[in-house]
TrEMBL record, chains A, B:
Listed GO MF terms: 4-alpha-hydroxytetrahydrobiopterin dehydratase activity
Entry similarity comment: Belongs to the pterin-4-alpha-carbinolamine dehydratase family.
Listed name of the protein: Putative pterin-4-alpha-carbinolamine dehydratase
Pfam families: Pterin_4a
Matches recorded under CDD domains: PCD_DCoH_subfamily_b
Length: 95, 95
């Protein structure tokens, strides 16, 4: 089972890449903006397959070319290594 | 260009199918719950392709097996025929 991050500095590289801490909740969030809907949903599709493969799923919303993502681990009630792994993968897929 | 619905009774069949009017905004919304993430995102993928084909896109969010959809037409600042068409298609894809 996932455990809450002990070493919060593990988040620093993500915070440098546009991820932010969510107010009032142990979670991280990021807004991705793509060229258009096809690019946005194409990215979501690739990220969705990775999420399923990792067994860890995002909270996310999409309006046309914008995707808002929030990551947290419900099992442990906060940010875990799984969130870091999925966030890194999402960033890589968006490059 | 899309025009706001004149005949609001055109919404009745959707309201009977679980769509609701959004408070404080001329929009309709519905929550779909699927068996799991694969089913939820699979449905989103089919709906996304239809949205692109219709040239009309949803505001939607997904958490695991749940998808919340809001439809409105930004061009006309309210619900139009395009929203009815996309809502009907989404319901058909979810059957």
């Amino acid at each position: 089972m996932a455990e809450k991050l002990n070493d919060r500095s593990a988040l620093d590289p993500l915070l440098a890449q546009g991820w932010e801490l969510v107010d009032g909740r142990d979670a991280i969030c990021k807004t991705y903006v793509f060229a258009n809907f096809i690019a946005a949903f194409g990215w979501m599709t690739r990220a969705a397959i990775w999420a399923e493969k990792l067994g860890h799923h995002p909270e996310w919303s999409n309006v046309y070319k914008t995707v808002d993502v929030t990551l947290t681990t419900h099992d442990c009630g906060g940010v875990s290594d799984l969130d870091i792994k999925l966030a890194q993968k999402m960033d890589a897929l968006a490059e």
